[in-house]
Amino acid sequence: MPQAVRLDSVTKIYGGAGRGGRDVRALDTVSVAIPPGTFTAVMGPSGSGKSTFLHCAAGLDSLTSGACWIGGIALGGMNETQLTKLRRMHVGFVFQAYNLVSSLTVRDNIILPLRLSGERVDRGWLEEVLARVGLTGKANARPSQLSGGQQQRVAIARALITRPHVIFGDEPTGALDTVTARDILTLLRSCVDATGQTVVMVTHDPVAASYADTVLFLADGRIADRMQSPSADRVADRMTHLGAWA
Ligand SMILES: Nc1ncnc2c1ncn2[C@@H]1O[C@H](COP(=O)(O)OP(=O)(O)OP(=O)(O)O)[C@@H](O)[C@H]1O
């Protein structure tokens, strides 16, 4: 089986973006292979390249050099239309801001990726997804009628509806209170354990990272360390040594 996500010697340089118009090497020859059915957290100090890593891995940003694959599909050489199609069908996104369409119902928000790519909606699967995220009975509600945690559940359902190879999260619990954040992390964990999705999540929060199987620590655009079966304390300790909270 192919890796869910693979980066091979990926470098991303933002031209002239640094002090004095210098180039910024946001990612520096990063290689990583993320197996299917695993949960990976990406951590590191501010500016270490976490968002760039996520954007490059998800095909949202072009690479300066190197190569990326999602579910064994090479992103290199694809034009923007092909990349959009690949993202719609094989990648789910969950952001800190839920990015729901306020004028659409919960149901219509969830099935939006299918509508955009002209795919049929499987009603049974939609009901199952609603049940999995704990929103049975809320299909006709509008986002404004839901709590923040419930809105994030809609975003996760929308990410699951296409049965993607991988779900990318960018601080998905960043806007939530501690208790609600734990519910959402438990839900992401169950996506991995119950149905073998792959989750890759950027976070600043050691507790959030402790839900993952593996933590990748970025520093200056490189993978500085990785940790298996992390605990919040060990992650916090490692972050302190990276100078993240100096
Ligand atoms: N679009 C861009 N144009 C120019 N420079 C950029 C761009 N995006 C990121 N950078 C630079 O690349 C480096 C890595 O940024 P990135 O956003 O990936 O870091 P991060 O670890 O996600 O940071 P944070 O935790 O603060 O969100 C930084 O120096 C940043 O200023």
Automatic annotation (TrEMBL):
PROSITE patterns: ABC_TRANSPORTER_1, ABC_TRANSPORTER_2
Highest taxon of the lineage: Bacteria
Pfam families: ABC_tran
Source organism of this protein record: Streptomyces monashensis
All residue ranges annotated as the ABC transporter domain in the record: 5-245
Keywords: ATP-binding, Nucleotide-binding, Transport
Cellular component terms per the entry's GO annotation: membrane protein complex; plasma membrane
Name this protein carries in UniProt: ABC transporter
One GO MF term: ATP binding
Cited InterPro entries: AAA+_ATPase (IPR003593), ABC_transporter-like_ATP-bd (IPR003439), ABC_transporter-like_CS (IPR017871), ABC_transpr_LolD-like (IPR015854), MacB-like_ATP-bd (IPR017911), P-loop_NTPase (IPR027417)
